[in-house]
Amino acid sequence: MKLCQYDEHQAGAVRGERVFPVGAALVAAGHLRPGYTMQEVIEALANRPQAMQCAREALDEKKSSPLGSVTLLAPIENPPSIWAAAANYKAHAAEFFLKPSSSIIGPGGTILLPKISKDVDYEAELCAVIGTRARRVSEAQALEHVFGYTICWDISQRDPWGRGRQNTRNIRKGFDTFTALGPWIVTRDELPEPQDVRIEVELNGRPAMTAHTGDMICGLRDHIRFLSNVLTLRPGDLITTGTPAGVAKLAPGDKLRGRIERIGEMTLNVQSEAL
User: Fold this and answer.
1) Does the structure show a pLDDT above 80 at 95?
2) Which of 36, 45, 47, 59 has a Cα-to-Cα distance from 80 of 20 to 30 A?
3) Which of 110, 252, 266 is nearest to 182 (CA)?
4) How far is CA 175 from the centre of its chain?
5) In angstroms, rounded to a whole number, what is the distance separating the alpha carbons of residues 10 and 43?
């Protein structure tokens, strides 16, 4: 299932070029309250088989909307936490840092380049969405706690504090618009092996990055093992797995397009912050 958030913060499922209103179906069946959050949708679907069955049955209903007629939002806008691997590919020589949820934008969103900086770049990464609580799990158990996967763009300000000053990461990567998520969350059954997908990025229509998740220094299973032995991972937590080589400086007017195999693709625009 491709779980999305669209229009007035509705939960939907994408099949082909149609969006089905699974959130409304879950509310009608009593699995969600009106005014639900996407974190609550993820928790219900990951932990209640009847809720997932209800969502899948909604895909067989006639009521749906053309994908092109809706506005896709970030598939989750207020995750409990966003854990990001700092450097995790052999060609981009892991430690973790936190990103604020206030930095999240969705598909087609606009990255705002801060007035304070003249050096901002992008990182496109595979991002896991936790579905069930995880504490002290092994690598063998790790993927059992994953609900699904999405694309995360980790935007990074490199100056005026300078490259190599690791203690400033939370600030340099926490500006408004510096975390882009989307286009939806693909449930784990549709991507059974996270270490076997390709990542591709185009900058202004030209290839800028190509990578394979098999090149990670530490795989997602190890990330979950490590983090869950320090803290409790909760439904809706995000773990983004680091960028491969190919990052580049952004300029006003740039357009980014990123694809991750078996997940999908999304585009982003770049503008200067208003004076």
Assistant:
1) no
2) 59
3) 266
4) 17
5) 16
In the chain the domains, ranked by start, together with CATH numbers, are: 2-73 (no CATH), 82-272 (3.90.850.10)
DSSP H helical ranges for the chain: 22-28, 38-47, 49-58, 139-142, 169-172, 220-228
Nearest CA-CA partner of 185 in 108, 243, 244, 262: 262
Main-chain dihedrals φ then ψ at residue 255, nearest 5 degrees = -130, 130
Amino acid at 165: R
- Calculate the alpha carbon distances from 128 to 49, 163, 265 in Å: 20, 27, 16
DSSP code of residue 227: H
Looking at beta carbons, which pairs linking 253-258 to residues 24 or more positions away fall under 8 Å?
254/203, 254/204, 255/203, 255/204, 255/205, 256/111, 256/122, 256/124, 256/153, 256/201, 256/202, 256/203, 257/201, 257/202, 257/205, 258/124, 258/151, 258/153, 258/199, 258/200, 258/201, 258/202
The candidate with the shortest Cα–Cα distance to 261, out of 180, 186, 203, is: 186
User: What span, in angstroms and rounded, lies between the C-alpha atoms of 180 and 155?
Assistant: 8
Q: Which amino acid is at 91?
A: A
For residues 78 and 39, the answer to whether their CB atoms sit within 8 Å is: yes
Question: How far apart, in whole angstroms, are the C-alpha atoms of residue 107 and residue 88?
Answer: 25
Tens-place pLDDT, residues 34-79? 999 999 999 999 999 999 999 999 999 889 999 999 999 999 999 9
Q: What whole-number distance in Å separates Cα of residue 232 and Cα of residue 174?
A: 23
Residues in the chain: 275
Confidence of residue 242 (pLDDT cuts 50, 70, 90): confident
For residue 192, count other CB atoms closer than 10 A to its CB. 9
The 10 Å Cβ neighbour count of residue 26 is 24
Bridge partners (DSSP) listed for residue 206: 203
